[in-house]
Amino acid sequence: MADACFAHPRLAAVYDPLDPDRGDLDAYLRMAREFGARRVLDIGCGTGVFALLLADEGIDVVGVDPAGASLDVARAKPGAGRVRWIEGDATDLPPLTADLATMTANVAQAIADPGTWHATLSGAHAALRPGGRLVFETRDPARRAWESWTREQSYVRADVPGVGAVESWHEVTAVDGPLVSFRTTYVFASDGEVLTSDSTLRFRGREEIEAELADHGYVLEGVRDAPDRPGREFVFVARRPSGADNSRRDVPEQA
To answer: Whole-angstrom Cα distance, residue 228 to residue 145?
Structure first.
């Protein structure tokens, strides 16, 4: 089930105005170009910001998300007809042969349940063509990012056209091993309504994720840094093996 910040219609409508700087997506767009991707699966596409950037490049995009309210926002944007939107997750996909599958921003960490996470890795693997890549990011647990998720450090205020002023902030509610839970509060000045959204993220270590990718049949190509958060995140680039991979393994090593 999607968090209220994505699934509640009033909150989904202000998601983009409260987080207008999506410079974090630049690195993903560059990788789509680097890999020559022509068909992309955007897992956890939310309000469609990245999917529409890809569509602007002439890329065939499928955006999947469990939050219907967020997809409603995405479908109302200019150019949305160029993207195939699916309400669901990576286990609800039609047959695909994507060159690239992505999970940007918090998507990978928001899949906190281990069973759902493994199903997502399997679903993405099945959706990729042989040689296709999965790219996603996750915060380095050692950097303890949640320590800055306080009202003082996370407070934002935006004047949203047609809505009015909206205030928002985060506060951590629990830290339980790799799970960090927090509550986001929203205050709408137009009518004084206060809404909250509770979220839980899983902080997985690099070795843990590398092992999980191998278990699901991926070849790890590399772990990159996140340009917008240098030294604080891992960006994993994994590939579904192709026949060429098998051929290389069958060639004896030279003495």
So the answer is: 14
Interhelix angle for 114-127 vs 206-215, to 10°? 50
In this structure, the strands spanning 39-43 and 98-103 are: parallel
Query: What is the spatial distance between Cα 35 and Cα 139, in angstroms, rounded to a whole number?
Result: 24
Looking up tokens 């609800």 gives 92
Question: Which of 130, 122, 51 has the alpha carbon at shortest distance from 98?
Answer: 130
3-class secondary structure, 78 = coil
pLDDT tens profile 2-48: 899 999 999 999 999 999 999 999 999 999 999 999 999 999 999 99
pLDDT in tens, 141-173: 999 999 999 999 999 999 999 999 999 999 999
Would you say 209 and 222 are in contact if contact means Cβ atoms under 8 Å apart? no
Distance CA 172, CA 199 (A): 9
CB within 8 Å of 153: residues ≥ 6 apart: none
168 closest CA partner among 2, 22, 20: 20
One-letter identity of residue 172: V
For residue 110, the surrounding DSSP H or E stretch is helix 107-110
> 3-state DSSP call for residue 115?
helix
Mention every residue, 6+ apart, whose C-beta is less than 8 A from residue 127.
41, 90, 93, 96, 97, 98, 101
* DSSP helix/strand/coil, 116: helix
- The Cα–Cα gap between 214 and 28 comes to 22
Three-state SS for 124-155 is: HHHHEEEEEEEEEEEECHHHCHHHHCCHHHHC
